């Protein structure tokens, strides 16, 4: 009898009837993200490492930083961030550790290094063999730190260098550029339902980052069963996780931004709709293409069933915006697109809500909202419905959240904020409980 009841609940869990159709809602695999706000069970983060110490004034702009963080301080702040999640029961996994575990397999490691050297164009100034031998001379976890942190030309001894171009000095100090943005695990990949979107990053400085989740998903024992792929990094069109928000079991919001293209959104929509998971609609929200508003989540995040943060500057006069609702079309492989202009009305429509509250960054004050948005005042990470982690420096926005009944857990942020990303950017949720 017990087995029959269990099977019955399992069946209910897997299926939902929407307009007469059965849609797949699989919460039993290693990945399960059907909302922005469900209790955060498991998350992937990256502790800032010496990649941030390989930043110099000359490379800041290209590597997408505005200042050089002080390593011990940024690590301490990051530890406070991860502790804030652990205290609420979240299991915190580290990207660097998952990658090292993945690369314990020698065949996978060899393939990985070869691809990394190609994608880094490192073989233009160092022979593939020299670099492979150098990186392989370290235990795997140190090799991962090197790959992420950068390999300086000066650290490979002269005896290992056999070609003229390896021996001659030039002004570029690195064979492998550091990847200081890795602590923003949100962007290179995004779990949607029981599958994953491995993203094509827009900026050259971040292109290689999505390789890591690609290898982890395909080869780490935790994910060894087949994980559906909704988007692949071989796509020509850029898409970044900061633009991908899972509003509920049927609806995804995606920012059309400086980093995410409409072509990529349509590609993702076609893949998702063809596989018939529970998702039946994507809301594409255009935001200004600027450095400060680089992703949708820097100006808009979900904090509760019917409450969102917003940076008022993304709305035009009378609150007008360009919003498109994308749904499966009549014909296979075609989508249906409808235009909307108001965010609140669109959210009410797609989430079937009577009321929606937008909480303005910096309380809507011209100076406070610009200042706090710059330091990710709108970039909250929901760890349960109505419970968010935020940066402590954004005290005006935090006060507004509390006034709206949200529980706010503040983390220190002097150094973390120098990379221009907040708590949502620093987290890649892989499991959330149902709301
Ligand atoms: N989702 C996010 O907004 N992530 C922050 C990324 C900051 C990083 N320095 C970048 O420019 O890509």
Beta-strand content estimate: 15-25%
- Indicate the low-confidence ranges by residue numbers: 1-21
> What CATH architecture of the largest domain do you see?
5-stranded Propeller
Structural class: alpha/beta
Q: Which range best describes the helical content: under 10%, 10-25%, 25-40%, 40-55%, 55-70% or over 70%? A: 25-40%
Explain how this protein is built.
The protein has twelve helices and 21 strands. It has helices spanning 2-14, 71-86, 95-102, 106-120, 128-136, 140-149, 164-167, 209-219, 262-275, 343-351, 366-374, 395-403, and strands at residues 15-18, 21-24, 40-45, 91-94, 151-152, 174-176, 189-192, 195-198, 229-231, 244-246, 251-256, 281-286, 300-304, 307-310, 320-328, 335-342, 357-360, 381-384, 387-391, 407-411, 428-432. The radius of gyration is 22 Å and the shape is globular. It is 29% helix and 23% strand. It folds into two domains: 40-49 and 75-92 and 180-432, L-arginine/glycine Amidinotransferase, Chain A; 95-176, Arginine deiminase (Pentein, Orthogonal Bundle), CATH 1.10.3930.10. It has 435 residues and is of the alpha/beta class. α3 crosses α6 (140-149), α3 crosses α8 (209-219) and α4 (106-120) crosses α5 (128-136).
Show the helix and strand layout.
Layout (H helix, E strand, L loop, with lengths): L1 H13 E4 L2 E4 L15 E6 L25 H16 L4 E4 H8 L3 H15 L7 H9 L3 H10 L1 E2 L11 H4 L6 E3 L12 E4 L2 E4 L10 H11 L9 E3 L12 E3 L4 E6 L5 H14 L5 E6 L13 E5 L2 E4 L9 E9 L6 E8 H9 L5 E4 L5 H9 L6 E4 L2 E5 L3 H9 L3 E5 L16 E5 L3
Parallel strand pairs: 3-4, 8-9, 11-12, 14-17, 19-20
Antiparallel strand pairs: 1-2, 3-21, 5-6, 7-8, 10-11, 12-15, 13-14, 15-16, 18-19
Helix pairs in contact: 3-6, 3-8, 4-5
This protein binds citrulline (CIR).
């Amino acid at each position: 009898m017990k087995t029959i009841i269990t099977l019955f609940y399992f069946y209910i869990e897997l299926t939902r009837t929407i307009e007469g159709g059965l849609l797949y809602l699989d919460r039993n695999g290693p990945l399960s993200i059907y909302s922005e706000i469900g209790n955060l069970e498991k998350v992937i983060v990256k502790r800032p490492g010496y990649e941030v110490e390989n930043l110099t004034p000359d490379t800041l702009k290209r590597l997408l930083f505005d200042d050089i963080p002080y390593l011990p301080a940024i690590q301490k702040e990051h530890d406070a961030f991860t502790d804030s999640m652990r205290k609420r029961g979240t299991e915190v996994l580290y990207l660097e550790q998952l990658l090292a575990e993945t690369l314990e397999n020698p065949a996978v490691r060899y393939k990985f290094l070869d691809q990394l050297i190609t994608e880094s164009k490192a073989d233009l100034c160092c022979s593939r063999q020299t670099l492979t031998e150098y990186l392989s001379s370290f235990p795997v976890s140190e090799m991962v730190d090197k790959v992420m942190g950068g390999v300086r030309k000066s650290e490979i001894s002269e005896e290992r260098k056999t070609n003229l171009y390896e021996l001659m000095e030039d002004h570029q100090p690195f064979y492998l550029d550091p990847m200081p943005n890795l602590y923003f695990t949100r962007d290179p990949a995004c779990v949607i339902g029981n599958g994953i979107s491995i993203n094509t990053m827009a900026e050259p400085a971040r292109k290689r980052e999505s390789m890591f989740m690609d290898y982890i998903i395909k080869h780490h024992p935790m994910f060894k069963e087949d994980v559906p792929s909704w988007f692949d990094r071989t796509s020509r069109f850029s898409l970044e996780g900061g633009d991908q928000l899972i509003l509920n079991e049927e609806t995804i919001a995606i920012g059309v931004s400086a980093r995410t293209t409409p072509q990529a959104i349509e590609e993702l929509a076609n893949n998702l709709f063809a596989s018939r998971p529970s998702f039946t609609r994507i809301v594409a929200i255009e935001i200004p293409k600027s450095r400060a508003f680089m992703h949708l989540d820097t100006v808009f995040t979900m904090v509760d069933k019917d409450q969102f943060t917003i940076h008022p500057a993304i709305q035009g006069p009378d609150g007008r915006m360009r919003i498109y609702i994308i749904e499966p079309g009549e014909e296979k492989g075609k989508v249906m697109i409808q235009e909307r202009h108001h965010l609140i009305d669109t959210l009410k429509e797609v989430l079937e809500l009577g009321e929606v509250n937008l909480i303005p960054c910096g309380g809507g004050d011209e100076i406070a909202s610009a200042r706090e948005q710059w330091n990710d005042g709108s970039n909250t990470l929901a760890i349960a419905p109505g419970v968010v982690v935020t940066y402590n420096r954004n005290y005006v926005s935090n006060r507004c959240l509390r006034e709206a009944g949200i529980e706010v857990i503040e983390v220190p942020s002097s150094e973390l904020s120098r990379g221009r990303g907040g708590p949502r950017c620093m987290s890649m949720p892989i499991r959330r409980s149902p709301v």
